[in-house]
């Protein structure tokens, strides 16, 4: 499932891979866990996802 997310990331945002913190957030979501991800910006765009199953 993370492969599909990586394809979407590349297609719509132009990035070839997620950062390590983003991978942890996505893995939790894909496992059906309640997840809150907060990532600080350090000069580059990042995203945070809040997901409740």
Write the layout of secondary structure elements.
Elements: H1 2-13, H2 20-30, E1 35-36, E2 50-51
Antiparallel strand pairs: 1-2
Can you walk me through this structure?
The protein has 53 residues and is mainly alpha-helical. The protein has a domain at 19-53. The protein is built from two helices and two strands. The chain has helices spanning 2-13, 20-30, and strands spanning 35-36, 50-51. The protein has a two-stranded antiparallel sheet. The radius of gyration is 11 Å and the shape is globular. The two termini are 17 Å apart.
> What is the number of helices?
2
Fraction of residues in helix: 40-55%
CA distance, first residue to last residue: 17 Å
Mean pLDDT: 82
Series of secondary-structure elements, N-terminal to C-terminal = HHEE
Summing up helix and strand content along with how strands pair, one would put the structural category as mainly alpha
The total beta strand count reads 2
Gyration radius (Cα, Å) is 11 Å
Q: Strand portion, in percent?
A: 5-15%
Shape: globular
Strand order in the sheet with the most strands: 1-2
| Uncertain spans | none
For the sheet with most strands, the description reads: 2 strands, antiparallel
Summarize the structure.
With 53 residues, the protein is mainly α. 43% of the residues lie in helices and 8% in strands.
Task: Give structural attributes.
53 residues, 2 helices, mainly alpha, two-stranded antiparallel sheet
């Amino acid at each position: 499932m993370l492969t599909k997310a990586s394809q979407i990331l590349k297609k719509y945002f132009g990035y070839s891979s997620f950062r390590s913190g983003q991978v942890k957030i996505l893995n939790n979501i894909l496992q059906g866990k309640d997840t809150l991800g907060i990532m600080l910006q350090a000069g580059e765009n990042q995203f945070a996802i809040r997901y409740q199953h």
